[in-house]
């Protein structure tokens, strides 16, 4: 059993961990990173991302118009139904413009402002080449700066001491256990969304039907190690970023392409062919994250997004082709639904449509009236064959159960003591801000802001000894 001493140990290999490692190195510390995956799968969930949400007062080279601090916060307040820490949320929001500049200074490239059906060009800065490119850029920078990255090194347990942080690590490549002793440590190893046993503990039997949008390596080992070591754990284990994705997606790593974006343009029914929620509640980037939980609450955790030919070109096509049929009866047969029940649902929906000026770029006046579940915007009759259907499953992105931290990213213990040499960033502490709901790109904002802070403060903690 070997022992390795280091200045700063960063546990994790995604965006937050990379930001922490680079930040710590910038502030004069030697840094070792532990990535539990093989090199080919490095980057955690960050490799599947596309953008980060950023405030700005006026157009930039990557963002259009204006997106103020207050509007940004209102979006977070709305999706969390007011269950957010305003001080922490605004702290992240205010730091997002600087994060974009900092990312550029370390090799990350952004594409020009994004247009199209997602309506995110004003609020979100998109990475040129996506999350994989961002991750690769940061790893290239880390190598240039002399940061040591150890792949297939899985952190297992923590020993939190005032003078050092001890971490037991499994080196999978060499089948050995190593003991790291760090002056300070940053934990940025994600949530527990890939740990199927822990998901089932929280959700019960429905978890068996969940798909994991991201990496299979986010097992939550460090989250539960923090708990065992006496850190204060906050949040609800059933809360997280869960979206409706194509039921045909793989169990792990389906990524952003498995998301189904046409929900607001049609209707969604359950296995009884009944609608169960307002598909037109708000713009898709603000409301897409509620649909995973909605589908999870249905029998067998299955849903069906149904549209007709009128809207075929109005949404971003997902990974899989839709199931296509020339009649509703044919569609029902292909999807294993009761044909009479589906016809009844569609007929009632069509009868309730109040036609207006359809415009998916605004909260238009196309709605339904008189239905048990009304659709408030973008309601059009489903009457133009062929008809299209995407089967839906809950797709877990990341969980909100996490460790409590200060605004300096320092881990807080159950007894209220603040660790001077242990910090956390990214998914593992996102629950300090997000208790439920999600806004596109905000996870990357949290990880980037707190990653930089955690790395800086870890480096500073050494100087103060």
Task: Write up this protein.
This is Putative tricarballylate dehydrogenase TcuA. The chain is of the alpha/beta class and 465 residues long. The chain folds into two domains: 278 residues, FAD/NAD(P)-binding domain (3-Layer(bba) Sandwich), CATH 3.50.50.60; 154 residues, Succinate dehydrogenase/fumarate reductase flavoprotein, catalytic domain (Flavocytochrome C3, Chain A, domain 1). The chain is built from eleven helices and 20 strands. Strands 1, 2, 5, 6, 7, 8, 19 and 20 form an eight-stranded mixed sheet that branches. Strands 9, 11, 12, 13, 14 and 17 form a six-stranded mixed sheet that branches. Strands 3-4 form a two-stranded antiparallel sheet. Strand 6 and strand 7 form a beta hairpin. The chain is elongated. The two termini are 28 Å apart.
Summarize the structure.
This protein is α/β, with parallel strands linked by helices and 465 residues long. Helix content is 28%, strand content 22%. Helix 1 (15-26) packs parallel to helix 11, helix 2 (69-79) crosses helix 3 (86-105) and helix 9 (328-335) crosses helix 10.
